[in-house]
């Protein structure tokens, strides 16, 4: 079973996804499907007296509908949406001041790594990257000016599972350290970081939440009213907002999130088991497998694992290139979480922006392949991997 021994799935998730924030009474037309409101400005009954909306960057009825639904799915009070996942990250780190310090997990999305190193550093915000599977390293990295701990779990692309509750406990033993969890790989269907004490849950909605590879968007979910107020100010002041049409598309996609995640979860587990037995595979990095080094932590905080995982083979760059070029059902492309299955080589694609020395230390080698298992028939995907192995080796 794909989710054997994991946390029991939260009751009512699919119902919340379909109904939260979607009340037809909101609209004069009583539309069951929330309408797309594209207006950039809204009529005011008197000067500086608006009826809830004044300008499209500051608020939009379609966007608000999506944000209500997102907050409910994570068991949070507030959600804010942004123009991209990195847009959400940029806004969240704008809570910091010059001279502040971030501790980030070392194995992190390439775009996050680049933003922290190439942009934040220039603005005098220092980042320490360390291995979060060893909590002592986090304790050792905390300084007087540490204001944020950045967790991604499972990590990208090595699928390390980080104990959220343990890191929250470390952060809370100091004053004013915010804990951010990037939950993109799992969605609230499989992990709800706020329940383990995280302050902010961050998403690239582009991936599983939208699930159709046709929208770029990000989100942050919080419980704290003061934090929401600060982020709401930044969302408006920085203008990193999504379009109403994209908000409509993501809101629609959430209605099938539970169904999609079940299929991703089942297929990826079957494929991971198949790869474990393949003679050319040296390691499979899937948190659902008992062989995964943090399998026990995964069972403690996750309801299962999604469709994204990595594996290492016995060849090198040449075999990786041949393998990926030989795939017929899996598409060689960056990104993940869509209905279509994708395969990529992180060392030269998604994580090429990570310095070579750091890649080598992490083990992001030319024989590490990342898969995003889609919604096709599982047997067809296994057949495709099998023929690609034969072509490469």
Automatic annotation (TrEMBL):
Protein origin, superkingdom: Eukaryota
E.C. code: 4.4.1.1
Keyword line: Amino-acid biosynthesis, Cysteine biosynthesis, Pyridoxal phosphate
Required cofactor(s): pyridoxal 5'-phosphate
GO biological process, one term: cysteine biosynthetic process via cystathionine
PANTHER family associated with the record: CYSTATHIONINE GAMMA-LYASE, TRANS-SULFURATION ENZYME FAMILY MEMBER
Homology family: Belongs to the trans-sulfuration enzymes family.
Protein name stated in the entry: cystathionine gamma-lyase
Annotated source species: Parnassius apollo
Lineage of source species: Eukaryota, Metazoa, Ecdysozoa, Arthropoda, Hexapoda
